[in-house]
Write a structure and sequence with these properties.
There is one protein chain. The protein is an alpha+beta fold. The protein is about 30% helix and about 45% strand. It is built from seven helices and 18 strands. The strands form two sheets. Strands 1, 2, 8, 11, 12, 13, 14, 15, 16, 17 and 18 form an eleven-stranded mixed β-sheet that branches. Strands 3, 4, 5, 6, 7, 9 and 10 form a seven-stranded antiparallel β-sheet that branches. The structure holds 2-acetamido-2-deoxy-beta-D-glucopyranose (5 copies). One 2-acetamido-2-deoxy-beta-D-glucopyranose binds next to loops. Keywords: Membrane, Transmembrane, Transmembrane helix.
């Protein structure tokens, strides 16, 4: 273009000075024209700049903002248990089944790879760094707004016996309990690059609340029982306000009174505590003379009941035994009417 214009002006030189001046005056570009020319000549540079800008913004979104958005989506999701079962207890593991609901307000429905979480006990808002157990989480494909997470009969290895014991104590005694699940996984969302995310979710759920409402229904005294054979039987009524199912094995409790100390023991075989009201057959050996010696003016005996042992498959379970021993149940029993009814 430059050279063509040069030829043009040199050929016109002969044509006269005025012509040339007039032409120069006419061709002097306005500001708008300058801009127009600039774009005409450098359109490709602008296209490249635009594309580069678009790419940078997109890449920033995908590689800088997206991981933050993905992480925030994980952080904002809340978890609640519909059912939580601890079965087949042993010295080093329990069989765990979980039915959980993950709630998220996010419109994104990503998929999380299967991953391991460590379960930590939270006491008075402080998360223990020690691990209760590891749980293998399945692949989770999120739905909006709730996602069901199901784990069936998974062997959960006890990582730290003290933590499991503290967990069992809190479950037995407290109204509610908080645990924290921590892990790392990969998040997939459509064709977007895979993001690494931290899973760090706290869950508060109802616990056994000290078995409040414990009672013995249909108590029966058997005067004919041979020494060492159960002479008091009945049904233990144990309310469970939580969604927990706990298998304890054979549980033996001590029965005492303030007046006479230890007066006997009571046993529940194949103790499985289910959600709701539990009615479990119980048999006891009670020293009747000591029991009668503890009767007050109204004919009542105030029984102090403390769990001692939990044995599953012939194995003592120290974490459940420590929990049972840490909690006292009291029950007023009308011994006079009980003995009078025989
Ligand atoms: C979870 O942990 C177990 C045992 O440490 C391991 O074998 C398994 O591969 C882990 N699973 C995942 C998804 O990381
Ligand atoms: C998880 O969150 C809790 C509370 O915000 C924090 O104390 C803990 O260090 C976090 N854990 C990880 C692994 O980030
Ligand atoms: C136990 O049951 C008896 C009989 O149904 C009732 O009178 C008593 O109040 C109950 N005790 C407790 C602690 O609920
Ligand atoms: C119950 O059994 C104990 C221990 O065998 C015995 O001392 C007590 O007299 C028995 N009581 C009744 C009412 O049979
Ligand atoms: C319960 O008490 C009776 C009588 O004192 C005793 O013979 C028995 O061994 C005790 N049972 C357990 C499991 O401790």
């Amino acid at each position: 273009m430059q050279s063509a214009r040069g030829d043009e002006s040199s050929s016109e030189r002969k044509g006269g000075e005025i012509d040339q001046v007039e032409e120069r005056y006419e061709k002097k570009p306005t500001f708008g024209g300058k801009v127009k020319n600039h774009y005409k000549r450098f359109w490709w540079a602008h296209l490249i700049a635009f594309c580069a800008g678009f790419l940078i913004v997109s890449l920033c979104l995908v590689y800088v903002a997206m991981p933050k958005i993905a992480q925030k989506g994980i952080d904002d999701a809340t978890l609640s248990y519909t059912s939580l079962k601890f079965m087949k207890p042993s010295l080093d593991s329990l069989t765990l089944s979980v039915d959980a609901l993950q709630h998220s307000d996010s419109q994104f429905t990503p998929t999380l790879d299967a991953f391991n979480v460590s379960m930590h006990l939270v006491t008075d808002g402080i998360t223990s760094e020690k691990v209760i157990t590891q749980i293998g989480m399945p692949q989770i494909h999120a739905h909006h707004p709730d996602t069901n997470i199901v784990i069936t009969d998974q062997k959960a290895t006890i990582v730290d016996m003290d933590q499991v014991t503290a967990f069992a104590k809190q479950v037995l005694v407290q109204e509610s309990i908080e645990v924290r699940m921590e892990g790392k996984t990969k998040l997939h969302l459509g064709a977007l690059p895979v993001n690494s995310v931290n899973y760090n979710s706290s869950i508060t759920f109802k616990a056994l609340n000290g078995m409040k409402g414990f009672n013995i229904t249909e108590p029966k005294v058997n005067l004919m029982a041979a020494p060492g054979e159960p002479n008091l039987t009945g049904m233990a009524l144990i309310p469970n306000p939580s969604v927990l199912t706990v298998e304890l094995g054979t549980v033996m409790m001590h029965i005492s009174t303030k007046e006479k100390g230890l007066i006997g023991n009571s046993t529940i075989d194949n103790f499985v505590l289910n959600p709701g009201q539990n009615l479990l057959p119980m048999h006891a050996i009670v020293d009747t003379s000591l029991a009668l010696g503890s009767v007050d003016k109204q004919g009542m005996v105030n029984m102090i009941i403390v769990g001692q042992t939990a044995v599953y498959n012939g194995v003592h379970l120290p974490y459940y035994e420590a929990a049972l021993q840490s909690h006292t149940l009291t029950l007023a029993v009308n011994l006079q009417s009980l003995l009078g009814s025989i």
